[in-house]
Amino acid sequence: MRSGPQSRQQLAHSTGLDTSTIARTVPALAAAGWVVESVDRPVTPARGRPGKRVRVRHAHHLAVGVKIGPEKLTGAVTDIAGGVIVADSLPLSSREPDGVLGMVAEMAQALTRRGLELVDAADARVIGLGIGVGGHVVEGRLVVDSHILNWRQVDVSSTVARATGLPTVTLNDVNALAAGEHWLGAGRRVDDLAVITIGRGLGCGLVLGGRLHAGTSGSAGELGHLPLLPDGPLCGCGNRGCLEAVVSDQAVVAALRERLPGIDIRDFHDILRLAEAGNPVVLDGLARTGELLGRAVASVVNLVNPALVIIAGEMTSGMDFMEQPLRRATADHTFSAGWSECRLVIDRSGDELWARGAAWLAIRAAVRRPAILSRHIEVGG
Ligand SMILES: [Zn+2]
Asked: What family does the Swiss-Prot or TrEMBL record give for this protein (predicted)?
């Protein structure tokens, strides 16, 4: 699926299954609508028998992703190659869990209908729903703690699955993104990567040795809560001086409001407008933010030595004013060859990024669901 159309021989090689298992499995998967096997293009007789290749029917299997943000829901439908078919967003009037989860279910159902209409194939179907939440999420369902939403012990997947009838999986939003980038995005074939997100919070998802690293209790990658500044501002987590308390969008807004008391600054968009107009205080503030972010990237590089760092999230809209100091600080503070062997990608796609990450999570869960394989593969039979 991730490698494009393959012959049966190539499939046997890439999956490690023997050719007789492949010979039984391909027709079964084709009968179930997952793959088609066809001749790719005319092959000249001189090159022997026309080669058949097996391809996944991407557009016939859709996944829905919803990111629950502090102010809005962002949703998308993708095909199983990860391409976005339709996306939408919905403002939240309250963060009360029951109401929000009801809206998530409604959004997922509306997106399902629109996705199926757009694909317009009689046998198209939705294979699952992925939900991304900022915070500590365990067991693919339970939000243990999200200070951004002010939620504790909320069973997201069970509630939404009951309402929609869709297999539902919930994960920390940044971990969903990291797993998705590794599986279908810029991190394919990269075994060690970090996705660092900047926006309302500062998040980090890690793929180490080819696997998502969630840690012992599922809270790895909380880069935003590195306790860096003993006398720093109060963080949303209740501690003082966390990195997130100086690098998030709200922290930058608060700091620049203090430095520019005569100017009405409501949000990060206002800051960008002032930066574009050349306001020297704002330019200095954004450069400082870029430098702090660069130090954060260097911390991650020094700790886990990744081959790829992807920076994403809402604040990448200000990257024109932050990228240079970010790269300089990263280079200055990375030990030995860690930085020269690491690629930095800045992904500026907006809100859709999060919903896409959540949908990718649903695809990953669906193709890993044992029922799909056991129904079609009888290994060693
Ligand atoms: Zn904190």
From this structure: Belongs to the ROK (NagC/XylR) family.
